[in-house]
Here is the input.
Amino acid sequence: MFDIKLIRDNPDKIKESLKKKRTDLSLVDDALLLDKKRRDIIGEVEKLKAENNKVSGEIAMMKKEGKDASAVIAAMKIVSDKIKVFDGELAKTDAELNTKLLYIPNIPHESVPAGDDEKANVIVRHWGSKPSFDFKPKPHWEIAEYLDILDDKRAVKVTGARFVIYKGLGALLERALINFMLDVQTRENGYTEIMPPILINRDSMTGTGQLPKFENDAFKLVEPDYFLAPTAEVPVTNIHKDEILLDKDLPIYYTAYTPCFRKEAGSYGKDMKGIVRMHQFNKVELVKFVRPGDSYDELEKLTLNAESILQKLDLHYRVMLLSTGDMTFASAKTYDIEVWHPGADRFWETSSCSNFEDFQARRARIRFKDKENKVCFVHTLNGSGLATSRLFPAIIEANQTKDMEVIIPEVLRPYMGGIDRITKK
Here is the structure.
């Protein structure tokens, strides 16, 4: 969320930055008009209050001198009534301004490439190489059906399209991935594990930028006014909502596993096979609260933390720096980590690692006292570490055999009771 003072002091610069995110610039103009109206009302109220104070002094003096103050008291009541009217108008204007500001996205960092969409994204690096086969590799959904480890047909009966049932060694592999990723992040990369609620209130969804703009993309309860977590980023970031942290507490690193729920409506279509885009999926999330001056170094570290999982699993991937037109609403800079899926013959985004600067912290009111005892907003970061709905298929496809068996990566075998491959029963 923007500080209106930043827009007020640099309107042209802000507009130029937001134009790169394909923002409706009338939001900025409307916010500036409401800000002017708000300040004008405050000016009028201050004048009336000064008049009130002056008249109150006169009334006290008249009463002390035994004079009739009734006319002056009546005049003061008129002033007081005007103040009440202005206070109501101020509250209404504040609410309108706040709503406008909630719809304005974060401005991109200067290092982000300008562009309208993913075509302007920049490849930062590759790791590993594509696996080679002496046969045509199959997509994960064919292998999973043959091995009977995923069942989307029965999941449709239970819930509907875009849900899946993990079965037998498929369920064990999913659980192994979650536990493995949490262990790496807590034991090697210094994160504290969190197990947060997955039902989230409206204020917390607003705090991280999901609301109000993307309410229709979220799964929502009718009563009470709660939402199912679209990602663990939301509940974990809001752990420190309305708090003032101490400088010595920073940086704070959290990791959390949650199921995630998204409608995934629109351009992706209903006929996409497999589990790469589901309404419910599992994900391990990485969240950081850091000092503003450290946040871009912390973004690089967070991205490497997410990459470390893929390296241990020996999966070929690339890191993309997203363009201004492909970034999320709340992000100032984002890296996508895309894993190679040989059966699908393409890369799939498996993690997004973002620096939100103080955008989320302003909305969620997360601050800290720096070394000079000045209260400032923290910078928040988060990244998928990783999403299993993309990781599971990559492992299945990259480690398949000609006989449609799946070789389990060595690092996962201790989590699977020593099982080294999935075979057909």
Summary: DSSP finds twelve helices and 17 strands in the chain. Residues 55 and 75 are 9 Å apart (CA to CA). The radius of gyration is 27 Å. The mean pLDDT is 95.
